[in-house]
Each structure stands twice: as C-alpha cells, then as structure tokens.
C-alpha cells in the first residue's frame, strides 16, 4: 500500500518549466539535468516497488528533522518486523569503492552513498524511538541504472546492484505476514513529521520579461500547440489534453514561477500567449481557484 507518493520538488518543477521557456544558464542547466536524472531513477524504483505483493506500507520522498539535523529518505517500506530504507542512485558508468571512498572511473571521487545512509541510520532510529516506535531499520543503497557497473565489488548486503533488484523484491514478496494498527500509526506519524520545504532547494534566477509566453506541449515540451474547442493538440507530436487541464497547469506553473504576482485573467492570458480565450480562462479560474478582491481588482488563489 502506498501512503505517500513521490512528486517533483519545486526546484525541479521550476527548472523544467524554465527550460522550456528560456535558455537556462550553464549552472542551472547542469543542476536541472542532475535533479531530473535523480528523480527518474527514483520514479523507476517506485514502479518496481509498486508491484510488491507482500503486506507493507510504502512512503516515498520523506524529509525529516531530528535534533536540528534535516535528512531525506528516498523510499521507505514498513514491513511487519522491520523498516527498510532505500537510498536510490541513478549513476551511470563504471565505479569502484576504495578504502571507504567511492570513485567514478578513472578516478573522480563522489560522495560515498554508504556514508550517507550511515549518517541517516542513527538519526532515524532516535527519531522513531522518541515517538515510541522501536522497530529495526534496514538500510540499502540501490543502484537502479542498468548501465551502472561496480568494479571489485565485495559482497555488501547494504548495496543492491541493478542485477540484484529483482531478487531483493522476490525475497520481500516471500514474506507472508500481516500488518497491524501500530504499522499504520507509524506511517501516519512519519507523514505528519514530513517537512514540505526543503532547506536544500535553490531558486534559479530569472525575470518575467525574459521568459517566452505560450502553451507548452505536455508531451514533447515544445510550444507548438493549437486549441480546438475544449481540446489542446500538439502539432509536433500526438499529445492531446483537455483545455481545462491545460489551463489549470498553466496557472500552477505561473504561481510556482511567480509566487508574488497575482493570478488574474489578463495575467494568465499573457502567460499563455493569448492562445486561449479570456472566457475559458475566466471560467477555469472561477471553477478551480478561489476568487479574492472585487470587480476589476479581483484575482485568484
Ligand atoms: Zn508535442
């Protein structure tokens, strides 16, 4: 059972929106590619976990704090006898461990993910004890990219290589037990403790005027769409979406990129490059958002 799904961080959503509407700086572009790769790896592992048939609770993308330390958990499974925590890595290429250090070939040092989980383990244990849950926690680093190779790999039960993932999941599926209310309470507690705002997020720098206005295709990401009736079609790929959904997404994108600007009919008209009728924009704003202010000065939240 999935208790909490993964969603793109605000930072990644912003970079994705900006990338389609302007040229990102080399630094932002690199950061975007890095975050996107990480997110895709995690989403790929989520899909595998979604097929688990044993009794369990899944929680993805948790941000927790204990004694002033903020730490992130990619995926967490609550099983009857234990909790399993996964640190998901989408590394591609050839790597090796050497004396507690982790390198990409030929010799580019990368933060050792085993140290990362080594730091998380005692903090999470303490946090759960503080809330009255005394359950063993098993930590794994899972390398999900099929093009990941680890040289001189010594057997380490904490490391799950791409070729070992299926076997790991089969073993979990062979566990035949039931969960009880305590497990549910534990899951609810973790979700309650989850922090929404990550202190690690950066905000890219951009100005309203430098951003291209228009409607971006949800399939190919190009601004090549046309509106026909209540449908939006892409002229480059075969993407089609309902007009209402497109407008709601445009508004959410606008709010994300410009949290200090007011959402008005004319602001969204300009944002979509006047591609959608004012009547439709007005209808959707009224239907899905809350109207504030009055008459000509009204805006939506
Ligand atoms: Zn398209």
From TrEMBL:
Which species is this record about?
Allobacillus salarius
Q: What is this protein called?
A: NERD domain-containing protein
**Which Pfam families does the protein's record reference?**
NERD
- Alphabetized InterPro entries for the sequence: NERD
> What range(s) does the NERD domain occupy?
37-147
């Amino acid at each position: 059972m999935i208790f909490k799904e993964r969603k793109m961080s605000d930072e990644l959503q912003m970079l994705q929106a900006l990338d389609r509407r302007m040229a990102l700086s080399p630094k932002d572009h690199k950061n975007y590619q890095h975050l996107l790769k990480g997110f895709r790896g995690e989403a790929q592992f989520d899909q595998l976990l979604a097929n688990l048939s044993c009794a369990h609770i899944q929680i993805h993308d948790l941000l927790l704090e204990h004694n002033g330390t903020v730490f992130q958990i990619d995926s967490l499974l609550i099983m009857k006898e234990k909790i399993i925590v996964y640190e998901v890595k989408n590394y591609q290429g050839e790597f090796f461990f050497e004396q507690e250090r982790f390198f990409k070939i030929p010799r580019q040092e990368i933060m050792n993910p085993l140290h990362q989980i080594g730091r998380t383990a005692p903090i999470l244990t303490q946090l759960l004890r503080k809330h009255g849950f005394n359950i063993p926690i098993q930590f794994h680093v899972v390398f999900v990219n099929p093009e990941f190779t680890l040289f001189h790999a010594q057997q380490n039960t904490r490391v799950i290589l791409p070729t070992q993932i299926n076997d790991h999941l089969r073993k979990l599926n062979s566990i035949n037990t039931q969960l009880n209310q305590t497990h549910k309470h534990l899951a609810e507690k973790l979700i309650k403790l989850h922090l929404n705002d990550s202190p690690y997020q950066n905000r890219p720098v951009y100005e309203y005027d430098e951003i291209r206005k228009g409607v971006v295709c949800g399939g190919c990401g190009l601004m090549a769409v046309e509106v026909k009736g209540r449908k939006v079609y892409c002229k480059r790929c075969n993407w089609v979406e309902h007009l209402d959904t497109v407008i709601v997404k445009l508004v959410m994108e606008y709010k994300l990129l410009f949290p200090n600007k007011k959402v008005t009919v004319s602001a969204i008209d300009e944002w979509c490059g006047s591609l959608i009728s004012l009547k439709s924009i007005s209808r959707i704003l009224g239907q899905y958002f809350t109207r504030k202010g009055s008459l000509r000065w009204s805006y939506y939240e």
